[in-house]
Amino acid sequence: MTTTLITGAYKSLGLETARRLIAAGHSVIIGARKFAAPVIVNVSSGMGSFGMTHDPDRVESQYALPLYSTSKAAVTMLTAQYARELPDVRINAADPGQTATDFTGGLGRSVAEGAESIVALATIGPDGPTGQFIDRNGTLPW
């Protein structure tokens, strides 16, 4: 079956839609704004960073991936803008770094290491950073 993401599913139309889709055998992911300490982590990349792709000491400067890089720059900017718009939500972008996946042909750090920055941001408290671009070593330029 299909997996469906429903935003605003904590009441009314969204909730009823979720109930019906679950009854029909769908997997449903529910998103809502009514959480105690909401956190959003967007997965971005140093490949979308002007600072990192123009630094000859960085691995990101060794590749020309215009479509991928453009999309990741957009993800990071979207993160910054949503963080300004939604100050009660911790919204950050994580850079897992070059990680050994199908996309990289198995090059890079382990998947477990790549997940570190994502998990760290997903588990921050309500006083944690927001609107940041972060890898496992800290804040990144972009």
UniProtKB/TrEMBL annotation:
<keyword id="KW-0521">NADP</keyword>
<dbReference type="GO" id="GO:0016491">
    <property type="term" value="F:oxidoreductase activity"/>
</dbReference>
<dbReference type="InterPro" id="IPR020904">
    <property type="entry name" value="Sc_DH/Rdtase_CS"/>
</dbReference>
<dbReference type="InterPro" id="IPR002347">
    <property type="entry name" value="SDR_fam"/>
</dbReference>
<dbReference type="Pfam" id="PF00106">
    <property type="entry name" value="adh_short"/>
</dbReference>
<protein>
    <submittedName>
        <fullName>SDR family NAD(P)-dependent oxidoreductase</fullName>
    </submittedName>
</protein>
<comment type="similarity">
    <text>Belongs to the short-chain dehydrogenases/reductases (SDR) family.</text>
</comment>
<dbReference type="InterPro" id="IPR036291">
    <property type="entry name" value="NAD(P)-bd_dom_sf"/>
</dbReference>
<keyword id="KW-0560">Oxidoreductase</keyword>
